[in-house]
Design a protein that fits this description.
The protein is mainly α. It contains five helices and no strands. The protein has one domain (about 5-85): DnaJ domain (Helix Hairpins), CATH 1.10.287. Pfam families: DnaJ. May negatively affect PAX8-induced thyroglobulin/TG transcription.
Length: about 80
């Protein structure tokens, strides 16, 4: 898993809760991808990057092992942040 993925809230990027099913994640991805696709936004230089991030989020969150690893890392980061406050 790429380190820059760990800096992002993949669930927030797709607009779903962390309890979302694979079906809900795929549906949210399709909706976002349709509006953010670079072909639909040729004048937006950030469209390619956003579309790439959406694709990475889909890849991680629909793979059970990758999602479990992502959730574990996020939980550890959240716990560390709570201890520092």
């Amino acid at each position: 898993m790429a380190k820059d993925l760990l800096k992002m809230d993949l669930y927030g990027l797709l607009g779903v809760e962390n309890t979302a099913t694979t079906k809900e994640i795929k549906k949210a991805y399709r909706q976002k991808a349709l509006t953010c696709h670079p072909d639909k936004n040729p004048d937006n230089p950030k469209a390619v990057e956003l579309f790439h991030q959406l694709s990475q989020a889909l890849e991680v969150l629909t793979d059970a092992a990758a999602r479990a690893a992502y959730d574990k890392i996020c939980a550890a980061k959240k716990g560390a942040n709570q201890q520092n406050t």
